[in-house]
Amino acid sequence: MELTFQDFIQICTHFEAQNQAEFDRDRVQMSSFYPQKFFYDATFRDENNYKTFVRIHFYKNKIEWDTGWEDAHDAIFQLFEMLFPDQSNNSNSFIHFIPDNGFIRDLERSFTTL
Fold first, then answer.
1. pLDDT digits (tens, 9 = 90+) for 80-112
2. How far apart are CA 43 and CA 52, in angstroms?
3. What distance in Å separates the CA atoms of residue 23 and residue 10, rounded to the nearest whole number?
4. Are 52 and 69 in contact (CB under 8 A)?
5. Beta pairing partners, 40
6. Exposure of 63 by Cβ count < 10 A (0-12 exposed, 13-18 middle, 19+ buried)?
């Protein structure tokens, strides 16, 4: 089973709820550089309420995420496993990126809001 755009919306919604935030459909954006690549910016909060940026992507039937902390990666990966147990062992279904300078530059580029 391939992941769908609705699966992407589902993980974004659950991730926001898990971090005391509300999912906002208007914040789903489409990359102006890659047609049909969507992303959603969220905030991860740890147990001490420290925060870090998380970007969740949907592209070519894969859900991907960028995080700055391993705790954030672990939280979203556990959520992914819970929501899509059939996909969690399929490395073709998800990708985790560790941010680098290129990632930060990408954040500064313009994107088109859906």
1. 999 988 876 555 455 555 444 444 434 433 333
2. 6
3. 10
4. yes
5. 56
6. buried
Q: Residue 24: which domain range?
A: 5-113
Least confident of 1-10, 53-62, 93-102: 93-102
Mean pLDDT of all residues in 27-33: 92
33 close to 109: Cβ distance less than 8 angstroms:
yes
Which among 76, 77, 81, 86 is positioned nearest to 1, based on CA atoms? Answer: 86
Say what the pTM is. 0.77
Half-sphere exposure of 49 (CA within 13 A, CB side): 2
Tell me how many domains the chain contains. Answer: 1
Q: How far apart are the C-alpha atoms of 95 and 97, rounded to whole Å?
A: 7
Q: How many Cβ atoms are within 10 Å of 32's Cβ, its own excluded?
A: 11
